[in-house]
Automatic annotation (TrEMBL), chain A:
InterPro entries: MetI-like, MetI-like_sf. It comes from Salipaludibacillus neizhouensis. Its main location: membrane. This is ABC transporter permease. It is found in: Cell membrane.
């Protein structure tokens, strides 16, 4: 494939130049935010290294509290998501199970049509989740999309393995935990990571379902600190009225960094999985 | 390759045996035999019924005058009153115009960006370089919209934002990017490209990896240069993928960028920012016009459904398998 004509080289150089430009534009804003969060005098060129912004953040209850909330809903929520999704996907992976196709159809319908924001809000309210952290975990406990991909994944496990274990007297619960789950561990890890990222990043559910400010996750606090305080008047709802405090630029940036660190930590693991194409698998059987 | 084939044959054989056995038993016996599988299904089914199907049934409130003190059962039926009101409101046209604008920008700006980046990446011969760039451009996809909008507020604000500092240093006037009605849509599309254009390349890269290398060899023999290879071989071979993705993207334009728009909206740009979902939230949950906003939501869901099914049908016609 190595041809060394001038045209080809020129093509390569242009390509590398453009891609470097693309890469830099993607990464520069974030690097700028990280660097400035450690600087005492923000501006075009940040100067003087300081940890003041982070010290301030971790000394206020609002921030630490919201971080705890975010960690709590991410860990517990991922666990709930995975348990429910795995159980359902496992049962649906049995092709001969009576009623399976009807259930699958019903799941598929939810991907195409939904009740919408207002009726969903009323159901969440009727089930008593309003103003509890459960509202951030339960109403989206199973992603129909992940469920179907995981079901397809379980179907690929050779049936002989399952039949053999059954003949040896293995119970259904044993089958799931000793054979199916261990064999699918990479896929389940991938879905766990994607669920976790979604839970950590969710924002709108929090402002819709939760009005107690001590139950707000870090994304809501971030919006108040950065967006509302930067002159964005935002939606003039009652709960924004207490956010008239303005924060220094470094504090805003440090909040962004803290809200992003968990994503950066899991990113290498995520990348391993989506590079393998776990999630781009066909939804079809 | 021999081993997996053998397995497949065996499994279809055992399935056949299984089927004949199964047919002899009654349905109930079969179900009792698999009772544990049903037990595993219970939590999931309850979840789908309560949080997905109950709201669908709750849509009925769009045809009522729901009053919280009367409750769902005793509120009076009003037929299509809320729909009639919605279609006669001037806001309806604003919402439609804004949604169409964003969808159009998405198709003519965002979409070509993903293709170009994918093509550029595909031409890279140094694996190391390619992987590094890929690592960079995928990251923003995993950031929340709050973070993305937050970063742009910090960069673009007139009070010490870098972009405006640079403009000032170069002798230009400061531009209020965040409060300007005319700049709202460019900002929106900028954020969309920054966040997801890299991620969107994945599916194109997968398609590009499947292009037959023999085609390139043959074209090179005929004296084609790199640019002509790209234009005459690479692009045509992913044309069908491009068409399918374009159509499918059209299918869900009702759902484009709700959280992003919500976060970018402020008092200065509401006229160009408001889309169906933000309107439902503002009128419904903030102003308490529940039935009316449920009707707006239902209208949005139905249009969305028609678009998804229609685009999927078109995608199938275009020669590829649809998604549903």
């Amino acid at each position: 494939m190595q041809d060394k004509t001038i045209g080809s080289r020129l093509f390569d150089y242009t390509n590398y130049f453009l891609l470097t430009l693309v890469g830099l534009t993607t990464i520069m804003p974030f690097i700028y935010v990280v660097i400035t969060s450690f600087s005492a005098t923000p501006g075009l060129i940040p100067k003087e290294f300081t940890l003041d912004a982070y010290r301030y953040i971790f000394s206020t209850d609002t921030f630490t509290n919201s971080l705890m909330v975010s960690i709590y809903i991410t860990v517990l929520g991922t666990l709930i998501n995975l348990v429910l999704t795995c159980l359902m996907a496992y049962s649906l992976s049995y092709k001969h199970l009576p009623g399976r196709n009807i259930i699958l159809l019903c799941v598929l319908i939810t991907m195409l049509f939904s009740g919408g924001m207002i009726p969903t809000y009323f159901v969440v309210k009727a089930t008593g989740l309003i103003n509890t952290l459960w509202a951030l975990m339960i109403p989206n406990a199973i992603s129909a999309f992940y469920l179907i991909i995981l079901k397809n994944f379980f179907q690929q496990i050779p049936r002989e393995l399952i039949e053999a274990a059954k003949i040896d007297g293995c119970h259904e619960i044993g089958l799931l935990f000793r054979i199916v789950l261990p064999l699918s561990l990479p896929a389940i890890a991938a879905f766990g990571l994607f669920y976790a990222v979604g839970l950590w990043n969710q924002y709108f559910n929090s402002i819709m379902y939760i009005s107690d400010s001590d139950k707000w996750p870090v994304q809501v606090i971030l919006r108040q600190v950065v967006i509302l305080a930067s002159g964005g008047i935002g939606e003039s709802s009652s709960m924004d009225s207490d956010s008239t405090v303005t924060y220094s630029e470094s504090i805003k940036m440090a909040t962004i960094v803290i809200a992003t660190i968990p994503i950066i930590i899991v990113y290498p693991f995520l990348q391993k999985h989506f590079a393998k194409g776990v999630l781009i698998g066909s939804v079809k059987e | 390759m021999a081993q997996p084939q053998l397995e497949v044959q065996e499994s279809s054989h055992s399935k056949l045996q299984h089927k004949t056995q199964v047919n002899k038993k009654s349905l109930l016996t079969r179900m009792w035999k698999e009772r544990w599988l049903y037990v595993f299904l219970v939590p999931g089914i309850i979840y789908f019924i309560v949080y997905k199907y109950l709201p669908m049934w709750g849509i009925l409130m769009a045809f009522m005058d729901y009053k919280p003190y009367l409750g769902f059962w005793d509120s009076p039926w009003v037929g299509l009153k809320h729909f009639e009101r919605f279609f006669s409101e001037p806001e309806f046209w604003t919402l439609l115009r804004n949604t169409l604008w964003i969808a159009t920008l998405d198709l003519i700006v965002f979409f070509p960006f993903t293709i170009v980046i994918a093509l550029l990446l595909n031409e890279v011969r140094k694996e190391m370089f390619k992987r590094t760039i890929q690592t960079f451009v995928y990251v923003p996809h995993f950031l929340s919209w709050v973070v993305v909008v937050g970063i742009s507020y910090i960069l673009f604000t007139t009070e010490g934002g870098v972009i405006n500092e640079i403009l000032a240093k170069l002798g230009f006037d400061k531009i209020n990017f965040l409060m300007n009605e005319d700049l709202f849509r460019p900002m929106l599309i900028l954020q969309m490209v920054w966040k997801d254009a890299g991620w969107g390349t994945i599916i194109f890269l997968a398609a590009l990896a499947g292009v037959n290398p023999g085609l390139y060899e043959a074209a090179k023999m005929d004296g084609a240069n790199r640019w002509r290879l790209l234009w005459h071989i690479t692009l045509p071979s992913i044309r069908s993928v491009i068409v399918i993705l374009l159509i499918l993207r059209l299918g869900n334009f009702m759902d484009l960028g709700f959280e992003q728009i919500f976060l970018m909206t402020n008092a200065m740009n509401r006229e160009v920012a408001e889309v169906f979902d933000t309107y439902v939230y503002r009128v419904g949950l903030q102003q308490g016009q529940f039935s009316y906003s449920a009707a707006v939501g239902l209208f949005k869901s139905i249009v969305g459904l028609i678009l998804v099914l229609g685009s999927n049908y078109l995608a199938k016609k275009a020669g590829e398998e649809g998604i549903y």
